[in-house]
Write a structure and sequence with these properties.
By secondary structure, this protein is of the alpha/beta class. It contains eleven helices and 13 strands. The strands form three sheets. Strands 5-4-1-6-11-8-12-10-9 form a nine-stranded mixed sheet, with helices on both faces. The chain binds 1-O-phosphono-alpha-D-glucopyranose. The site of 1-O-phosphono-alpha-D-glucopyranose has 13 residues, from strand 11 and helix 9.
């Protein structure tokens, strides 16, 4: 079955980025000139996704407005002849079909995904965590969709991490190495404090199947007292296949200050309009 839908959990408080996130969702924080959520949505569009499902919390208004038509701004840009900008703004509002679902209680990532159940029904779908921004030639969601097409089982994106960083991630155990980037997974642990089962961490891109949703209905709170998607995947891996794919691309954790800074510098370096300016800014700092 084609992957047509993507779920974006956007309900978190973003406490690590306060005070920036006091009145706006953390997904509206800007990387160069676009909010994080727009990078995530563009990745989905470029991966063939047709319907975006935002799982929102208290501050969804800014997100809704961003993907809506702004009549006043449109008129103003037209009047002042800024037609290229006008076209850009139109492109954003025409880009997507968004459905909003409210997560009533902050019970964790697993619970957020489960909130999409009535909309995804029995289709497999992509999950995109907008905090994880990835620079890559081929969008990581498209990479996962291609792997999914081969096995028709859940697929998570994987990246190697240092053992001392394991506590930040879901860490997987490999049951079988299918090829140098594709693994059949065994157990997995959300944010292990010690003895991580490997150095392969789950990054915020997934292809989720209905049986993972069934498992989510039954998982009990895990790490941090939250319903964890990792725990549902671990449950499914006990009796069926779950796969992991070592994606190609460079990932940035834009949910932290250092990660957002790293992303900003890397995106500027990759941007022909900013690359030279970046060089002189860094040279001026005299590091
Ligand atoms: C979530 C997942 C975790 C994954 C991480 C990737 O954690 O629960 O398994 O490794 O995203 O960014 P979070 O960072 O939302 O706490």
């Amino acid at each position: 079955m084609k992957i047509r839908k993507a779920v974006f959990p956007v309900a978190g408080f973003g406490t690590r980025m306060l005070p920036a996130t006091k009145a706006i969702p953390k997904e509206m924080i800007t990387l160069i000139d676009k909010p994080l959520i727009q990078y995530a949505v563009e990745e989905a569009v470029n991966s063939g996704i047709e319907q975006m499902i935002f799982i929102t919390g208290r501050t969804k208004k800014a997100l809704e407005d961003h993907f809506d038509i702004n009549v006043e701004l449109g008129l103003e840009l037209e009047k002042s002849g800024k037609l290229e900008l006008l076209e850009d703004m139109r492109r954003i509002s025409e880009m997507v079909d968004v459905t909003y679902v409210r997560q009533k209680k902050m019970l964790g990532l697993g619970n957020a995904i489960l909130c999409a159940r009535d909309i995804v029904r029995d289709e497999p779908f992509a999950v995109i965590l907008p905090d994880d921004i990835i620079l890559s030639e081929k969008p990581v969601t498209a990479q996962l969709i291609d792997e999914y097409a081969k096995v028709k089982k859940p697929v998570v994106s994987l990246m190697r991490v240092k053992p001392e960083d394991s506590y930040k991630y879901g860490i997987v155990e490999v049951k079988e190495t299918v090829d140098d980037r594709f693994y059949r997974l065994g157990s997995m642990v959300e944010k292990p404090r010690e003895n991580p089962p490997s150095d392969l961490a789950i990054i915020g891109r997934y292809i989720i199947t209905p049986e993972v949703m069934d498992a989510l209905e039954n998982v009990t709170p895990g790490a941090g007292g939250e319903i964890q998607l990792t725990d549902a995947l671990k449950h499914v891996a006990k009796y069926n296949d779950v796969y992991g794919y070592g994606f190609t691309g460079k990932r940035f954790d834009c949910g932290t200050k250092a990660g957002l800074l790293e992303a900003t510098v890397n995106f500027a370096a990759a941007n022909p309009e900013l690359r030279e300016e970046l060089k002189s800014i860094v040279a001026d700092l005299g590091f």
